Amino acid sequence: MFYQSLDAHYDWFIVVYDYEKFCTDREIKEAIIWHEIGHITYPAGKNIICTDTEVQCDRVAIDYGQKEGIKKILDLTLKMARSLNNEVLLNMTKERQKQLHSI
Fold first, then answer.
1. Nearest to 98 by CA among 40, 90, 19
2. E runs forming strands in 1-103
């Protein structure tokens, strides 16, 4: 999760729920960080699902050399969407993968 900080010492911060797991795969870790940094320019609205915003943030990560990490994240997200039987997440992830292949 990525949030704007209320602390004057920090502009933004990323909340990581399982730091040990987060650090396990460097490509995924770096891709997540760059994707979340992309949300500074392409903010996600509260309770708003916007595939275009997520694709733009994926592109930020890719621009910083994290294409393989984004591929891994989307593969994991697709697997999760299927296991949860979540149609919205499934469709969004497939669209993000489709956009990734055109880059």
1. 90
2. 2-4, 12-14
Q: What are residue 2's DSSP bridge partners?
A: 14
- CA 30/CA 36 separation, integer angstroms: 10
Q: What is the pLDDT of residue 39?
A: 92
For 28-55, b/e burial (b = at least 16 CB within 10 A) is bbbbbbbbbbbbeebeeeeeeeebebbb
pTM of the complete model: 0.88
C-alpha span between 38 and 41 (Å, rounded): 6
What pLDDT, on a 0 to 100 scale, did the predictor assign at position 69?
A: 96
Beta bridge pairs of residue 14: 2
Pairing of strands 2-4, 12-14: antiparallel
**Residues in CB range of 58: below 8 A, 6 or more apart:** 35, 38, 70, 74, 96, 99, 100
Q: What is the mean pLDDT of residues 17-41?
A: 94
